[in-house]
Design brief:
Elements: E1 2-6, H1 12-20, E2 25-29, H2 33-40, H3 51-61, E3 64-67, E4 75-78, H4 95-104, E5 113-116, H5 124-135, E6 145-148, H6 158-164, E7 167-171, H7 174-184, E8 192-196, H8 197-228, H9 232-239, H10 262-267, H11 275-299, E9 306-310, H12 325-334, E10 340-344, E11 353-354, H13 357-361, E12 366-369, H14 374-377, E13 392-395, E14 409-411, H15 417-421
Parallel strand pairs: 1-2, 1-4, 2-3, 4-5, 5-6, 7-8, 9-10, 9-12, 10-11, 12-13, 13-14
Antiparallel strand pairs: 6-7
Family: Belongs to the UDP-glucose/GDP-mannose dehydrogenase family.
Organism: Listeria aquatica
GO molecular function: NAD binding; oxidoreductase activity, acting on the CH-CH group of donors, NAD or NADP as acceptor; oxidoreductase activity, acting on the CH-OH group of donors, NAD or NADP as acceptor
């Protein structure tokens, strides 16, 4: 089978390589010259465990090549970004998806399958993509087959989960669903779940909305317990001893191109019917400001305080800073002209992030742990010998609990203690 994958980002590239390394001939297409040049020279452009090895294998076999031109194929897989519009409900921007579909149409032949893996708003396939394909002269479900198969993998475990996770196969017609199953059967060992395109769209969105809402509940609990001087993390630990309770972990906010984006695609379609989803989005979106406020209150009496941010990604052990609350916290703090704000992240290549941990925390008055990288899980009290006297460490991910022997270590459980601490001891 010949497969053309359009969009070689965090999902498209692993998907393309997975097909190639399971015997399919794959052309990967991207509009970014840097991406194509790197892949052609044998280098990945994103951080994902095992991905470099998969690229090496695919290039050696000759089953994968990258370029900027769409090539004829049996199946076209579209995996491009779907950002938010800057409108009242942050609705789904289908421009990249539509552009990708338009680019495929000249190469489309009878019997071909088009699969949209990009996360899209409900009814996008029926109301937008299907009409585009049929306007080019094809009958969907008869001449060509149109499917929505949303990705559902966890960054850091993508290569494993592509194979073993269940996949939702949502066709415009039953024939489309069968065509989609034929494509993914080449390597997926999880169950191929048959449904309609619209159900597939909503299922994907609800997977992430469920998590967003439950994280919002945990984050709201943190704010309530901060007000009442109660340890929120202990509350969660004990509540989760109940056999039917599973409170999620709080944090500095949510990010990435899933939890921070997808719920809006539901909200836009039924704003009057989604007060809970909207409230959850607001709670999680406000968490960076809540963290910043805690820092501001603590350092208010210090002249030119140094604040060290550890971690810029939205989750641990990846290089993805899309919609990252850590970056938002950094930006809000950097807005203060009298603060010296520095950042360290061993996974991220950005100008404002240092690669030297000790240089970053040297004489820092406040240290914020904002990403659960493995590098931060093994930090010891001795690693912070160079911080300023009585410096505060706030672990918003609750990953460096071994630092608790430091009396100035805090997490989202005992964050109310910062209200008492103030800046006077610093």
């Amino acid at each position: 089978m010949k497969i053309t994958v359009v969009g070689l980002g965090y999902i498209g590239l692993p998907t393309a390589l997975m097909f190639a390394n399971h015997g399919q001939q794959v052309c990967g297409v991207d509009v970014n010259d840097s991406v194509i040049n790197k892949l052609t020279s044998g280098q990945i452009h994103i951080e994902e465990p095992g991905l470099q090895e998969e690229l090496d294998k695919a290039l050696r076999s000759g089953k994968f090549h990258a370029g900027k031109e769409i090539e004829p194929a049996d199946a076209f897989i579209i995996s491009v970004p779907t950002p938010n519009h800057e409108d009242a409900y942050k609705s789904c921007n289908l421009d990249y998806v539509k552009s990708a579909v338009t680019s495929v149409l000249p190469a489309l032949e009878k019997g071909n399958t088009i699969i949209i893996e990009s996360t899209i708003a409900p009814r996008s396939m029926m109301d937008h993509i299907c009409p585009m394909v049929e306007a080019s002269g094809f009958t969907v479900g008869k001449d060509v087959f149109l499917v929505h198969c949303p990705e559902r993998v966890l960054p850091g475990q993508v290569m494993h989960e592509l194979i073993y996770n269940n996949r939702i196969i949502g066709g415009i017609t039953e024939a489309c669903t069968e065509a989609g199953k034929k494509v993914y059967k080449t390597f997926v060992q999880g169950e191929l779940l048959e449904t309609t395109a619209s159900v597939a769209e909503m299922s994907k969105l609800m997977e992430n909305t469920y998590r967003d809402v439950n994280i919002a509940l945990a984050n709201e609990l943190v704010k309530v317990c901060d007000e009442l001087d109660i340890d929120a993390l202990e509350v969660i630990e004990l509540a989760n001893k109940h056999p039917r309770v599973n409170l999620h972990s709080p944090g500095p906010g949510v990010g990435g191109h899933c939890l921070a984006v997808d719920p809006y695609f539901i909200i836009e379609k039924a704003p009057e019917k989604t007060p809970l989803i909207q409230a959850a989005r607001a709670i999680n979106s406000q968490m960076p400001s809540f963290i910043v406020q805690k820092v501001e209150e603590t350092v208010q009496d210090i002249t030119n305080p140094k604040i060290a941010v550890l971690g810029l990604t939205y989750k641990g052990n990846i290089d993805d800073i899309r919609e990252s609350p850590a970056v938002e916290i950094f930006d809000q703090l950097a807005f203060h002209t009298n603060y010296q704000v520095v950042a360290f992240d061993p996974h991220v290549q950005v100008d404002f992030a240092s690669k030297d941990f000790q240089q970053t925390i040297d004489q820092a008055n406040f240290v914020l742990i904002l990403a659960d990288h493995n590098e931060f899980k093994n930090l010891t009290v001795e690693d912070f010998d160079t911080v300023a006297s009585e410096a505060i460490i706030l672990d918003t991910k609750n990953i460096a609990t071994q630092l608790a022997e430091n009396p100035n270590y805090y997490n989202l459980g005992n964050i109310s203690e910062l209200n008492k601490k103030g800046a006077h001891a610093l």
